[in-house]
Design goal:
alpha+beta; three-stranded antiparallel beta sheet; two-stranded antiparallel sheet; globular
Length: about 150
């Protein structure tokens, strides 16, 4: 992972974990959360996706997958920001971060760029997660990711 993008590596067909914030952000953003009934289903299928064991109030992943066949409009960009923000809210609720800020913008005809900032909390319980980032150039906890909307 760099200050301008989010990279991931596969090891034996699985996501290589770093036991830190990068993996947590990656899994939160790019694991499909179950579509709530109030969200419109994509026109290509009715599958609500998500993990079968999700409970009310304890959802894993994001709803970014709902945008995969949307046109990139202002409303779509707003939804992408909201979906990303919601998927990372657990970090604040669990005391890992004091805030999570997401900026979404058009990155081309079929892409939305997300800038995610995870602000370190003062909770000493999670200091080891943050200390892992101390030797890296993006110690502020900023992550840049792009999602492709087709």
């Amino acid at each position: 992972m760099s200050g301008t993008g989010l990279d991931y590596e596969l090891l034996g067909g699985d996501l290589e974990l770093d036991l830190g914030l990068r993996t947590a952000v990656l899994v939160s953003l790019f694991t499909d959360a179950r579509r709530p009934d109030i969200e419109p289903a994509p026109s290509i299928h009715e599958d609500p996706r998500g993990w079968w064991a999700d409970r009310e109030g304890d959802r894993i992943g994001s709803l970014l997958w709902l945008l995969e066949r949307e046109k990139v409009t202002g409303a779509t960009i707003d939804r992408a920001r909201r979906y990303a923000q919601e998927s990372l809210r657990w970090m604040v609720e669990d005391g890992i971060a004091s805030a999570v800020n997401v900026v979404a913008e058009r990155g081309g005809l079929d892409r939305i760029n997300l800038a995610v900032e995870v602000v370190r909390s003062s909770n000493p319980q999670w200091s080891s997660l943050w200390d892992e980032l101390a030797n890296e150039p993006f110690t502020t906890g900023r992550f840049q990711v792009s999602i492709l909307v087709r």
